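Hi,

Apologies if this is the wrong queue. I'm a grad student, and the batch job for Dihydropyrimidinase from candidate division CSSED10-310 bacterium produced an output file that my downstream script rejects. I'm not sure whether the problem is my script or the file. Here is the sequence I used:
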Amino acid sequence: MALIIKNGTIVTAKDTYQGDLLINGERIELIGLNIPTAENDTVIDATGKYVFPGGVDVHTHFELPFMGTVSADDFETGSRAAICGGTTTFIDFVIPEKGKPLQQGLQSWKQKAAKAVADYGFHMAIVEYTAAVAEEIPAIIEQGITSFKCFMAYKNVFQVDDGQLLAVLKNAGQHGGLVSVHAENGDIIAMLTQQFLKENKVTPKYHWRAHPAIAEAEAVERAITLADFIGQPIYIVHLSSADGLEKVKAAVARGAHVIAETCPQYLLLHSDLYCQPGFEGAKYVMSPPIRPKDHLEKLWAGINKGYIQVVATDHCPFNFSGQKDMGEGDFSRIPNGIPAVGDRFNLLYTYGVVQKRISLNRFVDVVATAPAKIFGLYPKKGSIVVGGDADLVIFDPKATAKITAEHQNHNVDYSAFEGFALKGLPHTVLLRGKVAVREGIYVGEPGGGKFIPRTASGKEM
Ligand code: URP
Ligand code: ZN
Ligand code: ZN
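Support response: The file is valid. Your script probably expects a header line. Output copied below for reference.
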């Protein structure tokens, strides 16, 4: 008894072709033309629709304790929003408490993630590098947590210094791990933040002003230099500015191994949003901040030219009422982050493919294939191949919608993309061969997501 998807247009990072897919259990067993059906088979007619690999979002923060509160989507609501929006696999960040074992952090995240309805992995954040942490890193990699994040910002909270970053690069690298960085100069940010607060400049706009693009550019260049010195690649998370991108380009030109990720907010939103009256700008307070309008097309060009290989979300939502408003009267207390995991796939299709900024195949690459390859999930995840997991999005290019807070799947009271029109939507989504979304409606199983341990070999460009 197989499931057969008939007459779809199959799209991968390399090819677009007409074909059928035969799914047996959790995997794709056959790809071909006119695959015969048996009496007991289930058939999904994909005529007029695209068949994409399920999206892979390698940057989420579900149920994250942060800035005195907890991000508003837990693993259930967040992963449900993800899968309804075409993302079938995500990688969330374990952020261990200082002074506590990494393993304890990992166990805590595993417990929280048990209710996920999409498949998932974890990155491990290193918020201090001690002898105990150094000793634990190989064991963490052995458990399939093969990537690490160091923060060059959030001074006195998560920020590590250059010596610590060098040590993580060396230790993780020796054991096959990939290191990523939040590349902003935390000392510049801390200095400007103190200065603005002293001058009674307390509105959300000053969050943006305290995070100048030069703070990103400086940290991007420093991180690449340190990684190069150790002889390891570096992955830059949530690249936000043309200035940072220029540093990536220069490094690639001199042969450095740098991988860059951006997010829909840096491609589609701009810093005028911080300058709205009242506290409205708090909805867009995130780190790094969104940038002036002229940065946006430069980042799209960076995707097209291959300098940016991944579009993730940095999904980290906080309610406007009851969470963001903790920072009324002091922008430095506004919890950083926005909801986006359910919007990424659709926004990239509409504003990338439909508006002709990127090709259909580049779209699949940046939302699914490249992140799966880079983080050791491929070929199980991220493409449409015989033997791969049947994580598939049957996508109706004719369907339309508008993003609104009221109709979103995120568990939060506003949308950063309010009013954005969408052309093309997931119609049916399969997770390992099971229908999780049918005609746009969620029909998945509680706790249907699975932890995917990753291999340490995924350091591809
Ligand atoms: O504003 C953000 N990005 N919040 C989440 C934490 C991070 O820096 O990734
Ligand atoms: Zn970050
Ligand atoms: Zn993040």
